[in-house]
Amino acid sequence: VIETEPQARAFVAERCNSRALDQLDRLVEELKVENGRQNLVSARSLEQVWVRHIADSAQLLDHVPRGTGLWLDLGSGAGFPGLVLAIMEPNCEMILVELRKRRIEWLEDMAGKLDLTNCSIAGMRLEQMKVQPVRVITARAFAPLEKLLSLSARFSTADTHWLLPKGRSGGVELQNLAPNWREMFHVEQSQTDAEAVILVGQGAIKGKGTS
Q: Which of 41, 121, 193, 197 could form a disulfide with 170 if both were Cys (CB 3.0 to 4.6 A apart)?
């Protein structure tokens, strides 16, 4: 498990070029300033921002072939994982879905400052979005698993990859799904938190998810 800031930065540096690393440094600087205006992330987590937010987001790339786009990030909030993934995958289109006005403004501001031409912000409820098939769906603290899958099912196809970071309850949430949904996923250990997991799956969500 990645425990220190130097370890986290080295982990990320192995997965991106120098331009992306510079953009991530800028993101961290801007986050620390903006967090004084609005509570984007917990103040305590800023003490380990590379572990808790940057590497935590970047690790998702290890579970899907590089260059896989279009991505849909649900409930992007402060931009994790959405902004980090947009920086590290500049050739993939990223749609960041966020409802809260000040978060939308922050995401749009950062996409502009970091010149993320591959990144667009959908400032609306997921239910209001026009249906389009996506290749990857990510979500960090967006909703309980069954609700998350139900809301985003219409964007999924047989080729859709699901990368869903969860806390210690992730495995339990998965077991509570009906077999037809549960069998699509497997559990991966988070590399930044010994008590967290990533639910990794592939396929289209169909039918009901509870048994």
A: 197
